[in-house]
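Forwarding the complex inputs:
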Amino acid sequence: MLALEISNLHKTYASGLQALKGIDLQVEEGDFFALLGPNGAGKSTCIGIISGLVNRTSGKVKIFGHSIDDEFILAKSLLGSVPQEFNFNTFEPVEEIVTNQAGFYGVPARIARKETEHYLKQLGLWQHRRSQARRLSGGMKRRLMIARALVHKPRLLILDEPTAGVDIELRRSMWDFMKQINDQGTTIILTTHYLEEAERMCRNAAIIDEGDIILNSSMKKLLKQLNNETFVLYLRDDLEQAPQLESFNKIIRLDHHSIEVEVPERLSINDLIHELETQNIVVERMRNKANRLEEVFVKMTTKTDDASAA
Amino acid sequence: MLYRFWVAYLTITRKEIMRFARIWVQTIIPPVVMVALYFIIFGNLIGQRIGEMDGMLYVDFIMPGLVMMSIITNSYTNVVSSFYGAKYSRHIEEMQIAPVPDIVILLGFMTGGVARGISVGIAVTLVSLLFTEFSIHNPLIVLLVALLTSCLFALAGLINAIFANSFDDITIIPTFVLTPLTYLGGIFYSIKLLPEFWQQVSLGNPILYMVNSFRYGFRGTSDIDLLTAIIVILFFIALLFSVSLTLLARGTGIRQ
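Prediction (whole assembly, two chains):
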């Protein structure tokens, strides 16, 4: 079953800006889906329309088969959303914010209080339940929005840059939490600028740029589009200059102990290490220079820029 | 489904009541202090020199109008500041994203405004006991007019908040429209004192109908026919309710 089905979605703002140019998107139930794109690409507009915060110009949106027009009560009750910006009353106590949200979804007070306790404990906010939200740190505020979005047990959860401005340790714990929620059956749509996050968490992804979806496939297929990957190699011995290798063209010496090599798709790491060994160069450690998805993303969005410039 | 909407309505209403109750020093006390000053200055000091108005002591004459003025101002202010605050800090989105029909949002905010208007009205009535003797001609009329008037001005506050783009915009209507209409609405004088032409002009002021019907409930005397007054109030409620609901459905001021 499709958790989300978007057909021919258009949005033109009063200023004349065409934010969405007729996008189609389908997300399967249970998926962990990445919606990627540069700033101003149309991601937040798309999410705003699904959530009912932005009026669309035309097009259709269905959540688990329920139209957001004709069956908006049913459709909305299946959706939870964590927006990019803080959107709670900062003067309200943490517990009240989450309990009230459950109330808006029609969850009776007794159950709402129980669910609030459950999610605040799970997200490490229970001890702050009586604090005004403005007194929380940035990371806590993000977790508060996640607790608020989950309190009515949505089947589709949209996370709009949920880990923005969150430190690495907390980000990793939030990843674990999101994975756990997804494993329990909640479909998740994630937008993020941390492409490592998308690569690590998501099974499928779409890239949106200038209001169009320019790529939509599984993460595996998406990453296969990479023709080359760049590796940084840390060497055992000092190196005065970059080595000349027969099969590899792009080799840059970074310092005495490290080089950067671009490996074409047709060659393997073994080929590289073998060639280096023939020159008595021993590799101690290595790492990807950039995140693989980041390379695809840059490639795809730059292409579009070139095309539009032309 | 109806139960779900009922829970949502109760949640919005409770949230709204908690909002003004939490800051009662800013929301309940100032109007009480202000009205106490009116009683001291206009009721006692100046009122003793004025003598009687419409066959009663001046302080007894102005008492219902002062209570009504508090109800009007507070029901309006509560909704305009709360709804605009929710728009400004974007927590209105909490309701927009949830399956809450616009009419439930509307009723929730309206009830919050009514709750504050009535709370302040009761507090002001209690303070008035220090200056006048308590007497009610018809408690049902008092209650009915108080409820209808606070509904009306809560709705007006909501419309103001929907169109407001800054905090300045939420003070313009109360300052330049509401206050003059209230003062010219027969709180401090009977329109019978006015020349014929100005009496007719005064009939165009909807607040005159509220103040007079409220005064009728307390004192049994009014410049306006009671039934006419109630019909006028109901007409404006129906009008503002429809306008508010249409604006919410269109997403005016809250959806791009």
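Residues 2-250 of chain B form one domain.
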